[in-house]
Amino acid sequence: RKDAVDGVTSLSHTSSSLPSPMGTLKRPTSLSRNPSAAGFPIQSWVFSKGAGKSVIAQSPSPEMPETTVAIEVEDIPSLLRIVERFAKAVEKLKDVVLEDKQENRRPLAHECLGEVLRILRQVISMYPLLNTVETLTAAGKLISQVKGYHYEVCNEADKKDFEKAIETIAVAFSSNVSELLMGEVDSSTLLSVLPSEKSRVSVCRSLYGADVGTRSAEEVDIILQRSEGGVDSALTYAKTISKYIKDLIGYVEKKLALELEFSKGLQRIYQSCKQTITQPHMPFFSIYSLALEQDLEQSSGMHQAASTLQNQTFVMPLLLRKQEHEKKRKEIKEQWLKAKRKLMECEANLRRAKQVYMTRCEEYDKARTAANRAEEEGGSSTTKTVDKKKRLEEEARNKAEEAEATYRTCIADAITQHQELEHMKVTVLRQIQEVIKQSDQTIRSATISYYQIMHMQTVALPVHYQTLCESSKLYDPGQQYAMHVKDLQMSEEPETHYEFEAYSASSIRARADSANADAQSSAEAPPTAGETGDTSASHKDEHKRGMSRGHMTHKSWGSTVRDTDSVGGGSDISKMARTSSTGTMSSNEDADEKDSNVTSFETPNINGIEPEIVVPTGPFRNVGLSKAAQTHKLRKLRSPSKCRECDSYVYFQGAECEECFLACHKRCLETLAIQCGHKKLQGRLQLFGQDFSQVSGNSPDGIPFIIKKCIGEIERRALRMKGIYRVNGVKTRVEKLCQAFENGKELVELSQSSPHDISNVLKLYLRQLPEPIMPFRLYNSLMGLAKESLAVMGPEGAETGKGPDLVDLGPETDPELLALVDRLKNLLKELPRPNTATLRYIARHLRRIAELEDDNKMSPSNLGIVFGPSLMRPRPTGATVSLSSLVDYPYQARIVETLIVFYPAIFHSDSSRPACASSARTQSLQQFCMQSNNNNNNNNNNK
Questions:
Q1: Cβ of 936: how many Cβ atoms within 10 Å?
Q2: Per the CB 3.0–4.6 Å rule, which of 2, 186, 241, 924 could disulfide with 41?
Q3: Keywords on this record (predicted)?
Q4: pTM, whole model, 2 decimals?
């Protein structure tokens, strides 16, 4: 039984294997147009190292707020040391495999491969964010290439495939480490699961475990057969399945009852609203008529689906299966209990036979002892007594032999019955598994049918609703009213003429007519001298026209305002409305302008007090406009165009600027980031991935506008923001911001954008330059300079790997640092003028951030880690360079940190420095040179 338990334990552990080497790499290419630039996938959230080694399989919303960085600063050196070991192991593997003259290459290659995989496993266990599908797929491909390599013959095809596998794993690993250090991990490739399959596989793992289908039916039976109480556990599980089927039936029946009730409710709504909603010539009456028909169709479909599930595909099949399952389970249980009872009876008989045997043997020993004693005492006893003792001994011996035979028979029976029980156990376990499989199959079929029917019932709803939505967008306000008026077909109203009729006393009718005409004649009386004027005359003419149609005119202003004030102020009110409408003038307002008097009368006010700010009019008056959208003079879009905000086409409900002709969806006005330039907006500019010289050539100072725009906004709002440039932004917002820069160029409005999004855009632009600001040709010189500054000799002549701290102490600065600064300054003189200006601009900005380290927690070293790979990188030529660039991370950071700390000394001219500082610096350099010469002489003497 202990062995059986060990077998269960060993089988319960599943070994994780690498993905198939046939998989293909799929690097994120979002916004990347340059193949040499590293990919820059931006993620809305990252894991922290302290989150444990288990990675959550649930992907967050792309609009989640910014979170913590992926790796702590103090962990970076240890990670880089592991990366350096990995690079050396890969290089050694490459040398061993490709060295033709070396013998016994296969075992050596396998040993080197094991070292590579061991380091890879170690770094993945320490940093789970590196556990991506690309890395593991590349590792699987490398394993297959090393194992399948023909070491005996020189095969060029094998060499090419092996070199490609080396390059693949180097690029994948270096990209993942780079993204981890930059805080830009893309979760779509985590967990070694393809993004499209992640959700489905995670659900399967959570439901069935990670080792679905790894054990066969025979293995399951063997495990239960060797386990104590295995059959009872199987029977208990079978009983639980029966109850589970009952619970499933109850769940679906309750849900079907709700569906039927909902279906009946839809039918009642259809009957009650059919006549009221579908009146002709009402707005959207055809839309709601179609919606009602769809509701009726949905109701009938739900009723039919409920009937099908109840009687054919779910409830009835499961009920029948439950009954059959219970029947078979009880039969199997009875067989098992019967076999167990037989064994228990045999064991009880065995125990009784054993007890009788022990008793008979004890009696026999006593009788034999008594007989022997009687023989020894024969001189003093009679022969009759001895014979009696011997007879008793013989009887006891016979009983003992009989008890022994019975005992042995019971043992044989128990063994036989136990064997029969074992055979019965195998049969019972097989039968139980068969019953469970049949029930599983029935549940599976019923579940598939259930959700297939539910899918068929609901799959058409999104299409229907989308159709109704798009059809509703096509409706033009007032359209149905116009059709209603058109269908009235009424005759024209006859003209009514009012003429003056002279007084005649002879007719009563004439007096009555005269009395009725007094009210009208009062309006036609000649004006007084104080009331003469064009405005008064036009007002009385308008009043007369209103009276001629039998309507009464009502004043729309308050009782405390005089009529002449309101009439006279009408034009001013109209002008105020257009001035404060934030550019939302439309063709409707052109028509309003032609009738200024009516507009002035309809100006709203409350209790006779006119408002100071008039609500904007036009088609976009109810839209919340962004800050940039408020700078445009908007009108309705007149022809289909491409939205400059979301980069999709606008057909209906679009806005267009009258000055710059920017087109935008109505819904995109709330997030529009492009301001009006008061001239026609140019076409889209290819900005990201574009050569630096082309972009810098459009700026008078040589600094690309996107760098100045992003840095200016960050300095205005986020110099003290904690984790600026380290905390990641939101992917969707960053992509929209990049798109806005390509569409609007300098006109992008950043005041409403998150500083972390802006910092991501800046890093993205720098990383996707085909050649970094510090060109490829200077990379080796820069790295050599950084290595010399970090390779400080210890007291025993060994390199410590840590140079002096970068601190600017003025005249008291370490001579080694002063030498580093001078050499770096001379090296930067080789940069083109735009590169120098841009690098100076970025370094000055980073120095301002570092000066506020207490608030933003961004020291020069932290900024160096972030901006090192963005400002410099080696020329991409192969796998070795990809890994070496990772190893160069500390040196890249050292260069950027030097630029920040010694910004005045590197970028300011010598004339701007104090004379004392220059002389002190020169003296320090001379001392440093003398010390270096002495050290070299000592080393030569030692040699």
A1: 10
A2: 186
A3: Coiled coil, GTPase activation, Metal-binding, Zinc, Zinc-finger
A4: 0.43
Of 789, 902, 804, which is closest to residue 847 (Cα–Cα)? 902
Question: Average pLDDT over the chain, rounded to whole?
Answer: 72
| Across 268-272, 431-435, 826-830, 936-940, least confident range | 936-940
Query: Which residue is listed with tokens 């689906």?
Result: 305
User: Which 8-state DSSP code applies to residue 59?
Assistant: P
Comparing CA positions, the residue from 735, 774, 741, 755 lying closest to residue 858 is: 755
Residue 490 has pLDDT above 60, yes or no: yes
Q: What is the largest CA-CA distance in the chain?
A: 190
Contact, 634 vs 618, CB < 8 A?
Answer: yes
Neighbours of 546 (CB within 10 A): 13
**309 and 455 in contact (C-beta within 8 Å)?**
no
- The three state secondary structure string of 208-253 is HCCCCCCCCHHHHHHHHHHCCCHHHHHHHHHHHHHHHHHHHHHHHH
Phi first, then psi: give them for residue 508, nearest 5 degrees. Answer: -70, -35
**Encoded amino acid at 892, one letter:** Q
On whether the CB atoms of residues 835 and 825 are closer than 8 A, the answer is no
Q: Do residues 810 and 904 lie in contact, with contact meaning Cβ atoms separated by under 8 Å?
A: no
If you average pLDDT over residues 876-889, what whole number do you get? 64
Could you count the other beta carbons within 10 Å of the beta carbon of residue 257?
A: 11
Greater confidence, 728 or 10? 728
**Which residues share a beta bridge with 641?**
650
CA dist 749 and 629 (Å) reads 9
pLDDT band with cut points at 50, 70 and 90 for residue 406 = very high
Q: What is the DSSP letter of 35?
A: T
Fold of 49-208: Four Helix Bundle (Hemerythrin (Met), subunit A) (1.20.120)
Element (H, E) at 522: helix 508-523
Cβ contact 635:587 at 8 Å: yes
Q: Is 655 helix (H, G, I), strand (E, B) or coil?
A: strand
3-class secondary-structure state, position 771: coil
Q: Which of 782, 796, 774 is CA-nearest to residue 890?
A: 782
CA distance 52 to 70: 12
Tell me: pLDDT of 12 over 60.
no
Residue 584, burial from CB neighbour count under 10 angstroms (0-12, 13-18, 19+)? buried
**Strand, helix or coil for residue 805:** coil
Residues 6+ apart with CB under 8 A from 378: 386
Dist CA 125 CA 130 (whole Å): 9
Task: Give me 338's structure tokens.
Answer: 């019967």
Q: 767 - beta bridge partners?
A: none
For residue 637, what are its two tokens?
């879009």
The H or E element that residue 664 is part of is: strand 663-665
CA dihedral (500, 504, 510, 514) positive or negative: positive
Here the tokens at position 803 are 């140079």
The CA-based angle 860-864-865, given to 5 degrees, is 125
- 716 CB neighbour count, 10 Å cutoff: 11
DSSP letter string, 272-331: HHHHHHT-TTSTTHHHHHHHHHHHHHHHHHHHHHHHHIIIIISHHHHHHHHHHHHHHHHH
Q: Where are the alpha helices (DSSP H) in 127-229?
A: 133-147, 156-182, 195-208, 217-226
Residue with the two structure tokens 């104080």: 530
Domain boundaries, the chain: 49-208, 776-830+874-942
Polymer length of the chain: 943
Distance of CA 510 to the CA centre of its chain: 89
Residue 606 β-bridge partners: 609
Q: How far apart are CA 44 and CA 430, in angstroms?
A: 52
The Cα 610–Cα 708 span in angstroms is 45
| Pairwise CA distance, residues 572 & 102, whole Å | 96
Helix (H, G, I), strand (E, B) or coil at 9: helix
The one-letter amino acid at 857: K
Contact 178, 38 (CB under 8 A): yes
